[in-house]
Design a protein that fits this description.
Blueprint lengths: L7 E7 L3 H12 L5 E3 L13 E2 L9 E2 H14 L3 E3 L3 E6 L6 E5 L3 E9 L3 E3 L7 H4 L4 E2 L2 H4 L7 E5 L3 H10 L5 E5 L9 H8 L4 E4 L2 E8 L5 E8 L5 E5 L2 E4 L3 E3 L30 E3 L11 H23 L1
Parallel strand pairs: 1-2, 1-8, 2-5, 8-19, 10-17, 11-12, 11-17, 12-13
Antiparallel strand pairs: 3-4, 6-7, 7-8, 9-18, 14-15, 15-16
Helix pairs in contact: 1-2, 1-7, 5-6
The structure holds flavin-adenine dinucleotide.
Flavin-adenine dinucleotide (FAD) binds next to helix 1 and helix 7.
Length: about 325
């Protein structure tokens, strides 16, 4: 049996990226007093970047951490509460219909839960990589492509995303190397054709990055390229590496409460924020295999809060 007490919540929101904070703003303004679990990355992915130029409302751009701090304050102003804990599991109690949210700090129950835990971009795992993220190493061409005008850059990967990002980057860069560890691309035929016919893109087959080079100011200025067949190494000068080798959505802790696609992105069967479990909603990158942008995550956070509010009203009736 569940024990009900002070830990029983109406709405729990998991995650403090644009999706979680937007959900918190909407839910707090609807007087739901949401409890928001921050996880270990308070403010989400945008806290790891500098200038954000494509979030509406900031014609001069805004620093990522400042944008996230503003969102946090806005939600708090309306009554959202934060718990600096990481959720380890979510279960649904068959008898009470309540969600049991287990965290690093304890156990909570809630009538509805919004999952906004994001997705981690995959990197190569090379030494010194973390420090270069945001300094010439990124996993988002849409976000950072326009910062690299008239300079050589590379994209790592061989799937549709890698090909799409390489094509997109030719608008800005002087040259785009597409680094792929095999001798053929995994992308769709149409996408391959687009890349192969673009004179600005050079595909480096059977290749991988074995090291990064940075200049005195800590910005990436080149890579060491390795041949995956011969092991031969050579330096390559470029200003930015765009990783396109996939994302890892933070959805495992939900067990079988949600369906996911093969990569782990939460499936929203009705197109909104509802998952297959009534009362459990998903928003942002964790449930978006396609766009993965701050503004789309924020938009989904809004859907999730409105849908959760409606669900809670129906429970009361
Ligand atoms: C370097 C970089 C630059 C970017 N630049 C731009 C840009 O210029 N413009 C743009 O639109 N997008 C940009 N993006 C993409 C953008 O950051 C993401 O699309 C957006 O942050 C996704 O928001 P989210 O709310 O879904 O998740 P996230 O921002 O990933 O936040 C996830 C949250 O969930 C929490 N969490 C995870 N697991 C748990 C758990 N088990 N328990 C509790 N909490 C948990 C984390 O701590 C975090 O607070 C950039 C991304 C990166 C990495």
């Amino acid at each position: 049996m569940l024990e009900y007490g002070a830990m029983n919540e109406k709405l729990i929101i998991i995650g403090t990226g644009p999706a979680g904070y937007t959900a918190a703003i909407y839910a707090a303004r609807a007087d739901l007093k949401p409890l928001v679990f921050t996880g270990d990355q308070l403010g989400g992915q945008l806290t790891t970047t500098t200038e954000v130029e494509n979030f509406p409302g900031f014609p001069e751009g805004i620093m990522g951490p400042e944008l996230m701090f503003n969102m946090s304050s806005q939600a708090e102003k309306f009554g959202a509460r934060y718990a600096y804990e990481t959720v380890t599991a979510v279960e649904k109690d068959g008898e009470s219909g309540l969600f049991v949210v287990k965290t690093t700090g304890g156990e909570y129950t809630a009538q509805a839960v919004i999952v906004a835990t994001g997705a981690k971009a995959r990197y190569m795992g090379l030494p010194g990589e973390k420090e270069l993220i945001g300094h010439g190493l990124t996993a988002c061409a849409t976000c950072d492509g326009s910062f690299y005008r008239d300079v050589p850059v590379c994209v790592v990967g061989g799937g549709d995303s890698a090909c799409e990002e390489a094509s997109f980057l030719t608008r800005f860069a002087s040259k785009v190397y597409l680094i792929h560890r095999r001798d053929r691309l995994r992308a769709s035929k149409a996408m391959q054709q687009r890349v192969l016919s673009n004179p600005k893109i050079e595909i480096l087959w059977n290749s991988t990055i074995s090291d990064y080079r940075k200049d005195d100011s800590g910005e990436l200025c080149g890579i060491v390229l390795s041949d995956t067949e011969t092991g031969e190494q050579r330096p390559l000068e470029l200003k930015c590496v765009f990783m396109a080798i996939g994302h890892e959505p933070n959805s495992k802790f939900l067990g079988d409460l949600v369906d996911t696609d093969p990569a782990g992105f939460i499936i929203r069967p009705w197109g909104g924020a509802a998952t297959r479990t009534p009362g459990l909603f998903a928003a942002g990158d964790v449930a978006d295999a396609v766009y993965k942008q701050a503004i789309s995550a924020a938009g989904m956070g809004c859907w999730a809060a409105l849908e959760a509010e409606r669900y809670l009203l129906e429970l009361e009736d």
